[in-house]
Amino acid sequence: FSPSNFADLYSTSKEFLMYVYAKIKIKEMVIAKTDLFEEELQKRANLFKTLAHPARLQILQYLAQTRTCLSGDISDIFPLSRTTLNQHMHELKEAGLICCHLKGSKTVYCLDCDKIEEIKNILTGFLNEIDLPEDFCCEKRSIRKEAFLTV
After folding, report:
1. Please, which residues bridge with residue 107 across strands?
2. CB 59 within 8 A of CB 89
3. Cα angle at 120 between 100 and 90, to 5 degrees?
4. What is the pLDDT of residues 90-128, one digit of tens each?
5. Taking the chain, what is the end-to-end CA distance rounded to the nearest angstrom?
6. SS3 (DSSP) at 137
7. Which residue from 63, 124, 123 is spatially nearest to 92, judged by alpha carbons?
8. Which of 22, 44, 95, 109 has its CB 3.0 to 4.6 Å from that of 70, i.e. a possible disulfide?
9. 3-state secondary structure of 45
10. How many angstroms separate the CA atoms of 114 and 121, rounded?
11. Kind plus residue range of the DSSP H or E element containing 95
12. pTM over 0.85, yes/no
């Protein structure tokens, strides 16, 4: 925002301060809520959040399937703009799923195979923790079925 746009958005400094306060308060509430959970669950949630975008999954699949590293402009490979791809690459790098290094003037991105293996173990472990017996049936689901069948 330029200063003139700022003035257009907020007619008084009081409105602006209320806006800033609300943004900070919301951020504090979000942080406080996630802090209520065990550190391991927080780590898993952050990892799953990183994986929760189809573009990031496609980038990881591409790197695994081609068994190559990406360098230079990769926007011709994926149906996204260069800026958007860079944001996704940054998220994957922050999560440790890919690593990068400079080769000349280009940045080369590669899968971090150790981290991918770690993620497999985390996901498998998580799913094993919630492993349900084949005859498992939630009462609410069975109640809904019964209500549906009697109508």
Report:
1. 102
2. yes
3. 25
4. 999 999 999 988 888 888 889 999 999 999 999 998 888
5. 58
6. coil
7. 63
8. 109
9. helix
10. 11
11. none
12. no
